[in-house]
Known about the structure:
Strand content: under 5%
Distance between the termini: 53 Å
Structural class: mainly alpha
Number of helices: 5
Number of domains: 1
Helix content: over 70%
Largest sheet: none
Number of strands: 0
Mean pLDDT: 85
Shape: extended
Amino acid sequence: MSRAEQDQTVVSAATRMPAALARREPGSMELLLDILPDAFPWVRFLPEADLHAFAVELVDTTRAADSVGNSVLVAQLLIAWQHTAEVHSDPELLAALTSHREGDYGPVPDPQDVA
């Protein structure tokens, strides 16, 4: 067995146990929500509903990614949620991205035409 295969076996085992626990054990989601800020300090900027959605998506994606042997999927998830937390950490950016402006801003130029 190669070193990469050994590493994948260890990661797979480390992934399956918490995922199974989160799905079966009463109170495990609350525990996960409690420990997420220690593992990912940026989650403190997420609203409560988003924090819960992140936790569920993290467990589900980690489990699914392990089943196909592709950890890139988990990395992409973490990056996307970290960017979401960054938006929530900046009130001006959050306001700009969540404001609903009325009206038509006209046609969008073709990117190839913009120099």
